[in-house]
Design a protein that fits this description.
The protein is α+β, with helices and mostly antiparallel strands. Helix content is about 25%, strand content about 30%. It has seven helices and 18 strands. A six-stranded mixed β-sheet has the order 5-6-17-7-13-14. It has a three-stranded antiparallel β-sheet with strand order 9-10-11. Helix 1 packs across helix 5 and helix 3 crosses helix 4. The protein is globular and about 55 Å long. The chain binds guanosine-5'-diphosphate and manganese (II) ion (2 copies). InterPro entries: F420-0_g-glutamyl_ligase, F420-0_gamma-glut_ligase-dom.
């Protein structure tokens, strides 16, 4: 529950009252915080945020959608954020380092960045374009995402293993959504997330790398502000905002909460062009010039 800036997380079963004002509108709601970790953000209609507890360590072949449905009764319109880590483990998008032979480039970059050349090779294999080589590899993946070390992880998996991002996260999100519809009959939205670094600011945040059942961006262009000015450039990356908060609920280490349900989000309209094209992306152009 968020209450005038106060955050209450994972409390034992209890009822809390939330009263206050948000965006100038009066609010009042009562929330039951139960065994699932439930957070409620007070707007005109409350948004409930449920961290899915009790999921096992995911292994290849697991049905992630079914495991989530077993633990949280999903409703029509719920948005479920799923950490890419567990989707990839379930699909077997993992490799043992011992089976990776580093190329000359991987050996060179490993020495340059102080990393295991086999890990560097995994990063190179996952990348379609290397944008920056040092002090870490920044690269593009086939689905348009640009990420540090191509999002290849060595955490939350056994020693000596690496986890890759799903190769087509939009398709992954579609698949999970379809499976949830099959199990529950409900139409939900799915966001596959990953924790990413960012330019200009310290600290990682959750990003959406694939989504289904919603549009990535809420388009405010053409809308008027409180003073009647027409907005010309404002596009809100809602999928990243939701992914960002889900990351807060998931945590990064040993929480064991790889999925988060958002209930009661207002609807939005816009478009799906989340990734800049090469020509649009000024930062990428400058970085590429630096490294070419
Ligand atoms: P990423 O952001 O997709 O790279 O995933 P993280 O490694 O940061 O994990 C996100 C959350 O999922 C954390 O709370 C982890 O503890 C949890 N997590 C990761 N793998 C598993 C798993 O196999 N089972 C469970 N129950 N939780 C996991
Ligand atoms: Mn990750
Ligand atoms: Mn993470």
């Amino acid at each position: 529950m968020v209450r005038g800036g106060e955050f209450i997380h994972g409390l034992p079963q209890t009822t809390r009252t939330c009263t206050g004002r948000f965006s100038g509108l009066p609010i009042h709601s009562e929330t039951l915080i139960s065994a699932v970790c439930l957070i409620e953000i007070c707007m005109t209609e409350p948004i409930q945020i449920i961290g899915v507890q009790g999921l096992p360590l995911i292994k290849k072949g697991d049905d992630v959608a079914a495991l989530i449905c077993d633990r949280v009764p999903l409703g029509e319109g719920d948005i479920i954020c799923i950490a890419s880590t567990i989707y990839s483990k379930a699909k077997g998008y993992t490799r043992p380092l011992s089976e990776i032979t580093p190329s000359e480039r991987a050996i060179r970059l490993g020495a340059l960045n102080g990393e295991d050349p086999r890990f560097v090779q995994a990063v190179l294999d996952a990348s379609t374009d290397i944008i920056m080589e040092h002090p870490f590899i920044l690269s593009e993946l086939s689905f348009g995402h640009i990420g540090v070390r191509a999002g290849v992880d060595q955490s939350n998996i056994e020693d000596g293993m690496v986890i890759f991002l799903p190769p087509d996260p939009m398709k992954s999100a579609d698949e999970v959504r379809g499976r949830i519809r099959e199990i529950t009959g409900k139409n939900t939205g799915i966001i596959i997330t990953d924790t990413c670094g960012r330019s200009f600011r310290r600290g990682q945040t959750g990003n959406a790398i694939g989504w289904s059942g919603m549009q990535a961006i809420r388009d405010f262009r053409g809308d008027t502000d409180l003073f009647g000015h027409v907005l010309k450039i404002t596009e809100e990356a809602v999928v990243d905002e939701i992914a960002g908060f889900s990351n807060f609920v998931m945590g990064e280490s040993n929480n064991g909460v790889p999925a988060v349900v958002f209930r009661g989000c207002p609807k939005w309209t816009g478009h799906d062009n989340l990734y800049f094209s090469g020509e649009e992306d000024i930062t990428r152009r400058v970085l590429k010039k630096e490294w070419s």
